[in-house]
Design goal:
466 residues, alpha/beta, TIM Barrel, 7-stranded parallel β-sheet, two-stranded antiparallel sheet, 20 helices, 9 strands, 9% strand
Length: 466
């Protein structure tokens, strides 16, 4: 191959984009304010045995692509050897062209392993061995993988019943990167989920409370919010199909929760009322503690019942949903704002058809009290690729202030996913550089460079105050 596919000006199409990226974006530290990394692996400074363990295991993006190509589940989540799983991923990679996996794969090989060779069946053995040799050294421990990408803050996501044992260890260690957490109470909200009562029992145990009423549940959750807060937590997250906002009375909610605790059937209507009540309670409590709240909206999960029964959730059977978002979201934010209890809020949208909806919704509740108080979060999951990022950036620019945007995050379980920040920064700089070239923006590198630096790093630093 005569030239590198991943090169210094990858995705940068003109001199303005190049200058913006190299002078204002490239060297900014990373604040990864939402991911699903394991704090245990960070605290124990895990060294991975091979690239399959750090790169393919748990990555349902790759799994979906492999299944589409007709690769047996044995080589995906099954009992095949790690090397055979890697070789089957290598076989898949050339077929992922125009899927973001193709770009991410080669960016990650370049940035972590200094490998610029294209991954395919022919190069698989060489690349497996080269990465094997590098990974089996302290230079490639979890903590050093984070240092390689200039991470400053990494914020994992934990359930309310989590002890935060490993966050405590990290806070007392000499690890230079701040590792924080986000409170994720979905299991306490989604009352129709299997095992709900068992979960509430566990929540009661860690809160030293017997949860027999809705008031008890609220007390237990506030107890855990306080515990998380005392251990450095400053934000929360929720993965919901849509925001819930139904009319309810306190007596209705008390009755619904009691029915559930007695293992009686709850109707869908009752569930929506309960979920509305608990979500409002939580959000008012987040405001009390000064947290940032995040809502990931629009996923349709676990579509393939047969495979979900075999492999469980988060294994590659989810898609974009098309539930209505505007009215309930507006009513929910308005209810909090009317009490002056709307905390800083980030709304992530999975359905690109709703981009303009979300971009205009956030403007309704940006009240001048905080710069960018309510944010349209970056493209996530199916949309954290060039087209999805560009559409999100354009919608936000057209209907809000992109200058106040807090930028990218990985939302990943992989320690090799951090080049997504670089990818986002390149897309951003190319978008702006192209408009400078066309005369749609002035050739004011100092000001537009500041905007790029702010979106890449400084806005998030100011917003979260880690």
């Amino acid at each position: 191959m005569s030239a590198k596919f991943i090169h210094d000006n990858f995705l940068l199409e003109n001199k303005f984009a190049e200058e913006l990226y190299h002078n204002y974006a490239k060297n900014q530290p990373i604040i990864d304010y939402h991911n699903h990394l394991s704090p245990q692996l960070i605290a124990e400074n895990k060294i991975f045995e091979n690239i399959t363990k750090v790169w393919i295991n748990g990555d349902h993006y790759k799994w979906r692509a492999m299944r589409t190509l007709g690769i047996s589940e044995d080589f995906i989540t099954g009992n095949a050897s790690d090397k055979d799983k890697f070789k089957n991923w290598a076989k898949t990679v050339p077929y992922t062209m125009r899927n973001p996996l193709y770009h991410w794969t080669h960016l990650e090989l370049a940035r972590y392993f200094d490998i610029y060779e294209l991954l395919n069946e022919k190069s698989a053995d060489r690349i497996y061995q080269e990465t094997f040799d590098k990974l089996n050294s302290s230079d490639y421990s979890c903590q050093n993988l984070l240092k390689k990408v200039n991470a400053e803050v990494v914020c994992t996501t934990e359930d309310p019943i989590d002890s935060l044992e490993y966050h405590k260890k990290l806070s007392k260690s000499d690890f230079s990167i701040k590792v924080s957490t986000a409170f994720r109470p979905d299991k306490a909200i989604l009352i129709l989920n299997d095992g709900y009562n068992d979960y509430i029992n566990k929540l009661g145990e860690v809160s030293n409370l017997s949860i027999n009423s809705f008031d008890d549940l609220c007390s237990a959750l506030k107890n855990r919010i306080s515990y998380f807060n005392n251990n450095g937590c400053k934000l929360c997250d929720h993965g919901l199909d849509q925001i819930y906002f139904e009319d309810f009375t306190e007596s209705e909610i008390a009755s619904i929760f009691l029915k559930k605790r007695e293992n009686k059937k709850i109707s869908n209507e009752e569930a929506l009322k309960f979920q509305s009540a608990i979500l409002l309670f939580l959000s008012e409590t987040y405001h009390e503690f000064g947290w940032v709240q995040q809502f990931h909206l629009g996923a349709l999960r676990n579509n393939n019942a047969r495979m979900h029964n075999i492999l469980g959730p988060d294994t590659g059977w989810d898609s974009i949903g098309d539930l209505p978002q505007a009215q309930k979201l507006s009513s929910f934010l308005n209810a909090l704002d009317s009490k002056n209890k709307l905390t800083k809020t980030i709304i992530y949208n999975l359905n690109p058809a709703d981009n303009e909806l979300i971009a205009t919704m956030i403007g309704n509740f940006n009240d001048g009290s905080v710069k960018g108080k309510v944010q349209f979060g970056s493209g996530w999951w199916f949309l954290d690729q060039k087209d999805g990022m560009t559409k999100q950036l354009n919608a936000l620019s057209n209907m809000g202030l992109i200058s106040c945007f807090i930028g990218m995050l990985t939302d990943s379980r992989s320690f090799l996913s951090f080049p997504r920040h670089e990818y986002f920064r390149r897309v951003l700089c190319n978008l702006l550089g192209d408009e400078i070239k066309r005369g749609e923006l002035p050739n004011d590198m100092e000001w537009i460079g500041k905007l790029v630096s702010d979106i890449s790093y400084f806005n998030a630093k100011e917003y979260f105050k880690f």
